[in-house]
Amino acid sequence: LAALAAGAHAQDFPGSKPISIVVPFAAGGPTDRVARDLAEALRKPLGGGSIVIDNVPGAGSSIGAAKVARANPDGYTLLLNHIGMSTIPTLVRNVPFKVETDFEYLGIVNDVPMTLIAKPQMAANNYKELSAWIAANKGKINLGNAGVGSASHLCGLLYQTAMKTEMTPVPYKGTAPAITDLIGGQIDLLCDQTTNTSPQIEAKKVKAYAVTTPQRLTTPLLKNLPTLQEEGLKGFEVTIWHGFYAPKGTPPAITKKLNDALKVALKDPEFIKKQEGLGAVVATDGRIEPEGHKKFVAAEIAKWSPIIKAAGVYAD
Ligand code: MLT
Predict the structure, then answer these.
(1) DSSP secondary structure string for all residues of 243-307
(2) Does the keyword Cell division apply (predicted)?
(3) Which of 244, 270, 265 minimizes the C-alpha distance to 43?
């Protein structure tokens, strides 16, 4: 009878109940930006009902992810999370769910480059001068991040290792509050996604020095920034991806509707224009299929686990 009821419910999904997308970082940051743009593009393919964003920050995105893992698998509580999904298994020791088995994978949304930016008072006029400043200020550098396990934290880990320079981590609930403090000069450096840094770079509120992708970006604002590889950091590459999830056990009729709606959203010219304007690349490859998404996350878990173990940090 329950299966019948679930089946019937699946047919009329989505009904009039609002769909909630949990974002595991503070409002106003890059993850929130992707979620709000995506919600806009999902509205029509999901029947025009309301889609609300629920910011649930903390513990390397695992607090928000846990809320979705234990939610009713009825399609009305979803998760938008980034690369943090692949670091949780290594970083969060007491996590109440398994990334690999406790979610339905609804598809990858986009890939987002990161930028290395500094407070506006930073005297350096290019990456070489910034690198010299770092060498001259060892032990005195404050590097912002959105908490252990965040994208900004991972980029910061790799950057400190590449520069052979320890920096003092200054954690925030997201890189929205982090970039506010950077603008105020309270911290010196931040590695953050272009979806968040582009407007601040354009407004000259922060100073941008390099990008973390192997190739230079193509947006008018960022195309002249060198890659960190160009500046001598061999093999340095961090690209942040965002995935869409439902709780395990959500009926296949519902996960299919959600994945179909995602594919419509990813082709929405408005969504693509917004994302590309901020340096992001909307996903078009096999990762937009649930199986492709799941395989990709498993590969990312394997990639990041040794890097995080070597850093010896935990998010809880
Ligand atoms: C955010 O949305 O605040 C960022 O994704 C935080 C981070 O992961 O650096």
Answers:
(1) EEEEETT--HHHHHHHHHHHHHHHT-HHHHHHHHHTT-EE--SGGGSHHHHHHHHHHHHHHHHHH
(2) no
(3) 265
Q: Which residues of the chain have pLDDT under 50?
A: none
| Contacting residues for 315 by C-beta, under 8 A, at least 6 apart | 59, 60, 62, 88, 91, 92, 147, 148, 149
Query: For 269-299, how does the pLDDT look when each residue is reduced to its tens digit (9 = 90+)?
Result: 999 999 999 999 999 999 999 999 999 999 9
Task: Quote ipTM for the complex.
Answer: 0.92
Say whether 199 sits in a helix, a strand or coil. helix
Mutate to test the pocket of ligand 1, among 111, 150, 195 (most ligand atoms within 8 A of CB): 150
Cα separation, 92 vs 43, in Å, equals: 33
